[in-house]
Amino acid sequence: MASFGRDYWMNTIPFSPSVAPSATRIAPRRTDLPTDAAIYSVENFEPRPPPELVCSVCLGVYRDPVECPCRHVFCSDCIHGWLVNGTGLGAGSCPVCRQRSSPSQLMPVVPIVNNMIARLKVRCPNHATGCNARVAMEHLNHHIESCPHRRSPCPDCGVQMRASELSLHQRERCPKRQVRCDRGCGLSLSAERLSDHNCIQEMRNYIASLDRQIEQSQQQVQRLQRQVDELTATLLTGPAHVFSGIWHNHRL
């Protein structure tokens, strides 16, 4: 059975029969282990992990392992989902021995279990793009950050590529990179538009765009002028003392 059973723990960890071991310990979760569930597939480990470290629900290496009162161990997400959403005869009980259990009774495993998982060798997730590294689980996050084979999206065109190739791609290959026309107009446009670029038409479009901006600016000036005229008329036709006060304040 791919789990830590009662006999395993009783033979390796001494405890008082009157007190469950899990009730007397709190093992903090290791934050240096990967969180991506796909990494924990047994196919990614070389050599293959021992069955004592494999969850009998998902059949992957334990991820954030916890144990039931019966001392069978499972991934935290697996056993929570089983106990909360399970149906049929096994609902609300251990998937291995069927002893009744609830999420509130689950406890962290002893630290040695997480330490054993941390030392397992796993293939780099970028093995499909050429990385042949086998890294201890506790060092995998650091390796992924610096792996030259990791894939990153181009922020301009979205194409996935090796992180080491991103700079060259943005500089010389990205279809969205900005280039300057060398046919005479000197306009800056994306590389994908360069092959269909017509200097004369682009200049006409550019001039038309400037004309629209000028027209919008003129309309704005006219609106402001009308507002000034209306305010001036109001001041001139208003009470003399109001006009004098405004003029006095303006001069000050």
Written overview of the protein:
- With about 250 residues, this protein is an alpha+beta fold.
- Among the domains are: about 35-145, Zinc/RING finger domain, C3HC4 (zinc finger) (Herpes Virus-1); about 155-195, Zinc/RING finger domain, C3HC4 (zinc finger) (Herpes Virus-1, 2-Layer Sandwich).
- The protein has 8 helices and 9 strands.
- The strands form 4 sheets. It has a 3-stranded antiparallel sheet.
- A hairpin with a 5-residue loop joins strand 1 and strand 2.
- The longest helix has about 40 residues, at about 200-235.
- It is elongated, with a radius of gyration of 35 Å.
- The model is unreliable at about 1-25 (pLDDT under 50).
What is the CATH top level name of the domain at 36-146?
Answer: Alpha Beta
Low-pLDDT runs of 5+ residues are 1-26
Can you identify the CATH superfamily of the domain at 36-146? Answer: Zinc/RING finger domain, C3HC4 (zinc finger)
CATH architecture of the domain at 36-146, by name, is 2-Layer Sandwich
Query: Strands across the major sheet, in which order?
Result: 2-1-3
Structural class based on helices, strands and sheet pairing? alpha+beta
Portion of residues in beta strands equals: 5-15%
Mean pLDDT: 82
| Number of helical regions | 8
InterPro entries: Znf-RING_euk, Znf_RING, Znf_RING/FYVE/PHD, Znf_RING_CS, Znf_TRAF
Domain RING-type: 55-98
Protein name: E3 ubiquitin-protein ligase NRDP1
Keywords: Coiled coil, Metal-binding, Zinc, Zinc-finger
